Structures are given as structure tokens and as C-alpha cells.
Amino acid sequence: MTTDRRALLADAALDVLADEGIRGLTHRAVDRKAALPSGTTSAYFRTRTALLTALVMRLVQLDQAELQSTAEQLPPLRTAEELVDGMSLLTRQRLTGEGRRRSLARYACVVESARDPELREILVPRENAGREAVRRFLAEHGVTDVENRTHTLLTCLDGLVFDRLVSGGEVPREALEGLVAAALR
Questions:
Q1: Lowest mean pLDDT segment, chosen from 19-23, 61-65, 67-71
Q2: Which stretches of the chain are assigned E, i.e. beta strand?
Q3: CA distances from 116 to 8, 9, 17 (A)
Q4: Ranges for the HTH tetR-type domain (predicted)?
């Protein structure tokens, strides 16, 4: 039951962060969002740092599950168009519904991690099926320095998501096509 309660509180903290920003992330706000008695969150996570760490760990867990699921939905990537399709699917997921809320929380956590090496370590990009699919695609297309090109391509994709999260709208397909073309050069 403790693990379930911790996950419930971490999910509530994600919601608070998405709705109210980093300043709104308090133990009381999480208690309210989780519809639990006052003091429950602080009983599980004594400090703000402990709460933020639990939130970031949960965020990474949810992101990894999403990336795995997305990669499983796609056929093996053989053409640039198929890679663009996969990137387009991921950007839509990150900009709508629960994915948008997680993106808002993720970027707030990234800013906090600039001052907190422990959070930064948790947020380091992880191996996942999506990253592996991009790496394999680039290698199969003769790209040299596959690791750096994969990192650069995914970092640029992340930047496009951030831009559209702030400015609104979808990531234009032409932008994704340009990223893929640059990665293949």
C-alpha cells in the first residue's frame, strides 16, 4: 500500500506542477490534488526535495513507458518518411492531453535540475525503444557518429516540442523532415 500511496502522491504532484508551476508545488497542494488529509504528503515525503525527487522519478517512469509503447506501435523504420511519421506521433503525444501536462512538468523539472545534480542525474536521457529505433535507422543509412547524431536529433525534437508547448500549435511536418534530412547528411 505504501508504494501505491507514493505513486498516487507523485502523480498528484505532477498534476500540481503542470497546473501551478514550480512555485505551486507544495505538500498541501499535493494533499488537496490527491484528495487526502492534510499532512499525508509530508508523511511520505518529508522535504520538498524528497517530493520533487519522487515526482521526477515518476515522470521518467511514465515517459519511458510512453516511449516504449510508441516504438511498439511503429513498424521498423526503413525510410525517412517513416522516421518523420514516428517523430510526428511522439510530438503530438507530448503536446496534447496528459502528454502535454507531463511536458509542462518535465520542463519545470529540467530547469530545477540545473541547480540540483541529483535531479539532473534522474533526468539524464535513458535508453529506450524509441532512442534505439532512431539509432538503428541512422546506422542503417550509413550515418557516421551515430551516437552524437541520435542525441542531436532527439534534442532538436525536444526543442521543437518545447517551442510549441509555449507558443501553441503542432510541430510542422516540414520541421521534422528538415531534422531528419540534417541527421542523414
A1: 67-71
A2: none
A3: 24, 21, 17
A4: 3-63
